[in-house]
Amino acid sequence: MTDSGADPTADGGGGDGSENDPAPTVDPEETVDLLQKLVRIPSPYFEEAEITGFVHDWLAERGHDPEYHRVSEPDITEYEGDNVLARLEGSDPDAPTLLLNAHVDTVKLVEDWDEDPCSGRIEDGKLYGQGACDMKGGLAAVMVAFDALSGVELAGDVLLTAVVDEEGPYGLGTDRLIRDGYTDDCDAAVVTEPGPVLAQSEMENPALLLGARGRVFYDIEVRGKAAHGSQPEKGVNAVVDAGRLAATLDDMETGDHPKLGSGSVCPLKIEGGSQTLSVPERARLMVDRHVVVGETKETARADAERVVDELGLESEVDIGFREAPDPDIVYGPYVTDEGHPLVTALSEATRSVCGVDPAYGYFSSVGDFNYLGDRADLPTVILGPDGENIHGAGEFVYTDEVVEVADIVTEAAVRFCG
Length: 418
What we know:
By secondary structure, this protein is of the alpha+beta class. It folds into two domains: 28-213 and 333-417, 3-Layer(aba) Sandwich (Aminopeptidase); 214-321, Alpha-Beta Plaits. 29% of the residues lie in helices and 23% in strands. It contains nine helices and 19 strands. The chain has helices at residues 28-39, 49-61, 132-149, 172-179, 238-250, 297-311, 341-354, 368-375, 399-417; strands at 67-73, 79-88, 98-103, 122-123, 126-128, 158-163, 188-191, 207-212, 214-223, 256-257, 261-262, 264-272, 282-291, 316-321, 334-335, 359-363, 380-382, 387-388, 396-398. It has a six-stranded mixed sheet, sandwiched between helices. A four-stranded antiparallel sheet has the order 4-5-19-18. A four-stranded antiparallel sheet has the order 12-13-9-14, covered by helices on one side. The chain is elongated and about 80 Å long. The two termini are 26 Å apart. Keywords: Hydrolase, Metal-binding, Zinc. Residues 1-29 are annotated as: Disordered.
């Protein structure tokens, strides 16, 4: 977007607030101040109570009548938490409704920081802290954009969803939004995840990511035959066969897509064996696979079964998938059409705010946008401020990009909702 070392309190670039502007601009200083407050609240997934309370109170203080939306998963994770929702009601029930989605949680705090991982320190246009880029920058952007939109007469509704557990194993916050019907009346979605840093190809902001690969998680059981370790030829070593299978899966051909690129396979863990002088009779292999449009859970299973058949292992192999709270919890791939009205609105808003056309790209991994773009069948665009070191020590976000994303979302919502 603009120079990443620019003054974060400078004009956001969307106009001077005159009656000719298509939308109001956000306050840069307020936006960065909000971001800093969000980063200073530790919020690893499953530990979001403090930050959801902050988001709720911030919205309530501005008269937005937010609500808590309960998220409960008692069987596997025993998780209990709350999304925070708020809605701006438009004047025309037939006008489109726009969903703005951002997650409040981060990965677990990384130990390698050489400063407070939640410092919120600002230096050279960068704000540092765990989750600063992924994605409290995007959260701050949609919060101030939503607040700015309250001063505009909109035809369609705008629904803000600040969700929990995006970084956790199942994306329970957005999953629950879909299950409870909150996405049913929405027509399109913007998710303010950082885009370029995880795009399929090298790119810079301003950028609109119009789709993402999906993901399946193989959980494979390998059953061999125990024997004395001094006579391994009398047994079938499940750990050895699991290793052979992992290496072959690593080289397995995957699907290709003209927008999303190629799928990928990454063996993650082999577990098995523990007894001294015993040939391991059981092993468990866990493999991550990213898929493209046209590849499904069923085709992924068939691919792995074909690899097993071709290997001719002595062990018996069962191809399964990671346990999930519900079979519907699947990160499916999706692509949003470049000609969709939301993409048009975001492109025009980007030109207005940044003075250039946005780049179009596609996300290499998965997130809540997969649930929205695939499961909820919503045209979904990823637009977020960039930074570096996401999920690691030294994570930062560019403050000027947070402000610009807020201005783009504000103007695009006006254009899209009418």
